Amino acid sequence: MDRPYVRINVAATADGKIDTFERRGSAISSQRDKERVDKLRAEADAVMVGGHTLHDEDPKLTVKSESLRTERLTRGLPANPAKVGVSSRLNLKPDSNFLNAGAAQIFLFTTKQTDEAQLSMLRSCGAEIFVHDGERVNLNSMLETLKQKGMNRLMVEGGAALNFELMRLGLVDELTIYVAPMIFGGESAPTTAAGSGLVRSDAIPLKLVESQSWDDGGVLLRYQFEKRSK
User: Measured between alpha carbons, how far is 113 from 134 in angstroms, rounded to an integer?
Assistant: First the structure.
C-alpha cells in the first residue's frame, strides 16, 4: 500500500454532532475516552487535522500520558507522533500550540493560496511544508508523501470536511466513534462527515467490527471500510 493505514477517530453526541453550533471545540469525550484516544495517538506515527480544527481549535496533538511517551521512547520512537496539518490557506501564529506543544515532527500541506511570509515563518519554526497546485490539497498525493516520510499509521482527528473527503476518496481503513450520551442539536453544528454529501446509491459502506457499551453511558463503535463496487 502506497499510503499509511488511516484511522479516523471521532467523539460525537447521540445526534451525531462533533461540536456545538458555536464551533469552539466543545468537550464530548468522557475521561475513559480521553485515555483511549491518548493510547491511539501513542500507537500512531502521525496525527492529522484539517484547516478548521488547525486554526480554530489550535490542538496540541501530543501524547498526554508520561508512561505512554516513555513507552514510545523505549521502542526507539519520538515521544510524540508527528503532527500533520492540511489547509488550502495556512494562517498559524508562531506561538500556536500546534507548532510548539511537545517535541514532534511537523508536516503541513497547503496550496499556493498561503502567502510566502506565512510559509517562511512556519519553516523557521521547523515545519516541513508541501505546497500543492490547485485550490485544494491533493489528499492522495499527501498520503503518498507521508508514507515516504515513514508514516505508516495515521490517525485523523477531524474535522468533518477532511473526514468526508478522505472517506469519499476511499482513503480510510478504519473509523472509531465514541458516542456520548448527550444531544447538541443545531442545523449548523458539524457532524462526523460534512463536505458535499452523497446520494444514497453512492453511500460509503461500513462493517461494524466492535461495539462496547461503557459505564459512563457512552458507546464505542469501530468500523472497517468495505470496498465499493465501481
Answer: 9
Residue 228 binned pLDDT confidence (cut-offs 50, 70, 90)? low
Are the beta carbons of 1 and 173 closer than 8 angstroms? Answer: no
Task: pLDDT band for 230, please (50, 70, 90 cuts).
Answer: very low
What domains appear along the chain, each with residue ranges and CATH number?
A: 5-225 (3.40.430.10)
Question: Which residues neighbour 46 within 8 Å (Cβ) at sequence distance 6 or greater?
Answer: 4, 81, 82, 83, 84, 105, 107, 146, 151, 153, 154, 155
Work out the mean pLDDT of the chain and round it to a whole number.
95
Segment 54-61 shows an average pLDDT of 94
| Neighbour-count burial of 23, counting CB atoms closer than 10 A to its CB (0-12 exposed, 13-18 middle, 19+ buried) | middle
What are 22's three cell numbers?
458555536
Q: Verify cis geometry, omega within 30 degrees of 0, for the bond prior to 76.
A: no
Percentage of residues in the chain having pLDDT higher than 70: 99
187 contact partners, CB below 8 Å, separation of at least 6: 21
Grid coordinates in use for 132? 500543492
Q: What is the pLDDT of residue 229?
A: 53
Please count the CA atoms within 13 angstroms of the CA of 30 that sit on its side-chain side. Answer: 17
Q: Which of 81, 43, 36 is nearest to 62 (CA)?
A: 81
User: Which of 210, 129, 141 lies closest to 171, judged by CA?
Assistant: 141
69 phi and psi, to 5 degrees? -65, -40
